[in-house]
Fold Pyruvate, phosphate dikinase.
Amino acid sequence: MQHIDPDITLVTPGAPLSAVTHGGRAKCLQRLVRLEMPVPVTVALSFDAVHRIAQGEMPDMGRLLAPFGPAPLLCVRPSSEDPDWGGPGAILNIGMNDAQFVDLSDRIGKEAAAALYTRFVQAYAIHVARLDPDAFEHVTQGGQDGLSEVLRAYEEETEEAFPQDPAVQLAEVLRSMARAWEGTTARLLRQAKGAPADAGLGLVVQAMALGLGLGESGSGVIQLVDSQTGAPRIIGRYLRESQGRDALERRNEAVFLAHDARGPSLEDLAPDAFAELKGITARMRARLREEMQAEFTIEDGVVHILDGVRVARSARAAVRIAVQLAEDGIIPREEALLRVEPRALNELLHRQVDPEADRDVLASGIAASPGAATGRIVFSAAEAQASAARGEACVLVRRETSPEDIRGMHAAVAVLTERGGMTSHAAVIGRGMGLPCVVGASALNFHIRARMLVAPDGRELHQGDIITVDGTNGQVLAGEPAMIEAAEDDALLTLMTWADDVRDIGVRANADTPADAQTARNFKAQGIGLCRTEHMFFEADRLTVMREMIFADTSPDRAAALDRLLPMQRADFTELFRIMQGQPVCIRLFDPPLHEFLPSDRAGHRELAEALDLPLSDVTRRVDALAEYNPMLGMRGVRLGITVPEIYDMQARAIFEATIEASRDGDPVVPEIMIPLVSAKREVELVKTRVDAVAAAVRTETGKNFTYRLGVMVETPRAALRAAEIAPHSAFLSFGTNDLTQMTYGLSRDDAGRFMSAYVQQNVFPEDPFHTLDQDGVGELLKIAAERGRSARPDLVLSICGEHGGSPESIAFCRAAGFDYVSCSPFRVPVARLAAAQLAV
Ligand code: PEP
Ligand code: MG
C-alpha cells in the first residue's frame, strides 16, 4: 500500500479548517471546541485526503491514531460541505477487539461489552467488509454466545479472523466510506439535492464517548425549539445505555428530556446533566447564531457533545426561529430576512399535504396555484355549485376553464384541468383566488361527458370520488391524505414589517374583485397593479347583460345594455377604491375577445336564445360571426376599444363616477386607467382623447374635480420597441409579461403546456417561460422599453403585472432595470415583499 501524507488535522480552536475543505461537520465541531464544549478528541480528514483514500492511497495511520492514545475506541462520521447532501452512515466503536473486550468487561460488565463488540462486528461485516447481511443481522443469542456467533460467521464468510488491529479496522472503515461517496448511486442522490458533481467528502474521526457504564450513561439529542412551529420547547430523546442514533431509532424505549407527565425523563434521571445540556444548547444558539440540535452522550454522569446540527425546520418554524434570533439580539434583522426562503412562505399561506403522509399519486400536471385541498370530483360548474350548496367539498374537473366556470371555481375547493399552462385561465384565476390548482394534467384521461377520469395505471375515478389536488407540486392524489393547516402567525407579520422597512421596490397586487382587494390589503399590498375588469362580468346576472351588449346590432341597443352595466361597474370600482383606502388602483380596460363571453356548445346557445328571447339561428349566427381563427391575436384589447368605443366610454365613466363617490368619505382617489394590448402610438392617442372627453363630461355633470393617470400595458413586442413615442402619452408603462412572452416567442400561452415538458427536458428552454421570466429575450424587450420610455419621459412609472411579477428572480430583474413596483396575485404578495427585501439588504 502506498503511503501518503494527506491533510489530517486535529480539531483544535486554531486549526486550519473550513467547510469547503473539510466539510460542515468538521467546521461545526471546531466551533464547539472553541466554545470549550466537552467534545471528545476529533481529527478531521480533508476532501482531498478522502478522495485519495478512495483512489487506493492510505494516510499514515500512526499519525492519524496518535491523538487518541493507546487502545482507542473511535467513530467515523461523514462531513460533506452541506449537511443536506448526506453521506455514508457513521461507524462506531472502531478499535473494538478481544483485548478491549476484556478491559471493557471490567468497566461496564461482560454483557454490555459483548453486546457492543457484537454490534461492531455486525456493522463492520455489513458496511465495511460488505458481507451478506443475512449472515449477520439475525444473531440468535445475546451475550458472549452471540459474540462468538458473529465472530465465527465473519471467519466463515472471509476465511480470515476478525481483524484485531485498530489501525487495520480504521483504514478499512475510511476506505469503505470514501468509496461509498464516489459510487454512482450516491453521486446521483446528492446531485438531486443540489450538490455539484464533484462535491467532496470529509471524514471526522472522533474518540468514542461510550454511553455505556455503571453510572448514569446513555445518549440522545436535544434542541430548544419545536421543528414544526419554531416555538420554544425542549425537544429530544434520551436512551439509557445506548450509543449513536439509538435514542431516535428506538424511540419507544427512550425517555423525554424535560420533566413530562407522560413518563420518565432525563431531567428526573440526571438533573445536573440535563441542566448542563440545556445550557450548552442555549450557548450553541447564541454563539453559532443558529438554532441547533446537539447530539450528546452521557458516560458515568459526564456529558459529552458529539455534534451540533442546524435544527430541521418547517417553513413556519424557519420564520419564527429567524425572528426570535433577531429579537434576542443574536442576529440583525437583515440577516433574519435572508434566512427565510421567500417561496417557502407559500407553505405558511396555504394548506398543505402533511409531508409525513402517504401519497397515492394518480398523475402529475403543472403546479399552477399552491396549496392542497380534498374534495369529491365534479365535472361542471353547476355540479360544483350544487355540491357546495349541500355543504360538500368538491374539486372542479374540466378540460380547461372559461369565464363560465368562474362560479364553479368559487364553489370548489380546488381545480384540475387537462389542458393549459401557468397563464391559462384556470391558473390565473386559481392563483388570484388562492385556490389550489393543477393544470395540464394530460397524463390523466379526461372523459368529461362520461364523468370519469382514468389514471395512467388504469384506475377509474368517477363523479363523487374523493381526490386531493396538490397545487404546490402539481400532483393529483387519490383519497384524503393528512393535511397541515395554513399558519399565518405573529412571527410572519413581524418579519414582513422588517421586510417593508428595507425594500426599495413597491409590491402591488393583481385584484379583480372586492374579495381579491381585501386579500391584497390583508397582505399589505401597496395598491392594485392590475384589475382585470372583464373578470367583473363573469357573475351569472352580469354575464347575461354582457351578452346582450355583445348581441346588440345597433348603437342604441348597445348603449342600452351598457347603461345597465354602468351602475354595476361603478359599484365595483367604488368598493375597490374604498377597500384600498386611497392607495393606487390600476384598472385595465376591457381586454379579451368578445366571443369568450359566449357559450361554446349548442345547449349553451339554446339557453342564451331563451334568455335573450332570440331565435336560436340568430344566436348561432352571431356566435359564428364573432369567431376568429386566432382570437388572442385578434379583436381584443385596445383593438376592441377602438372598434367598439362605447365599451371603454362606459368603463371610463364608471371609474370617474366611482372616484367621486369613494373620495367623498375618504382619501382622495387617483385612479389609474390602463390600455391593454397596445402596439401603436395612435391607439393610445385615440383612447386618450375619448377618456379625456368622458372625464370632462363627468366633471361638468357633477361639478366635481378629480385627477387620473392614463397608462399603457406593454404586451406586444412593438409597444416595447416603440416605447419612446408611446411614453409621452402615458403616465406609466406596465409590462404584461404573459402576453409579451406569448408574442415574443410566438408561443400560445394556452397550448404550450402540451409540449413544454418535452422542450424543458431536452433543454430547448431552460424553464417554462410562462413560469420563469425569460430574461434573455423577453427581458431584453423590457430593458429596451424601460430605457426608451424613460429617455422620452423621465418620470415614467414602470412596473410588471404579468404572472412573473411574484417570482423572486423576476423581482430582482425588475429592480435592476429600475422598475417602481411589481404586481402579483394577492397570495404571492408576502413572497414578493420578502424577496424584494432580500435584494435590498
Ligand atoms: C399579461 O398579459 O401579462 C397580463 C397581465 O394580462 P392577461 O394575463 O390578462 O392577458
Ligand atoms: Mg395580457
About this structure: Residues 220 and 238 are 4 Å apart (CA to CA).
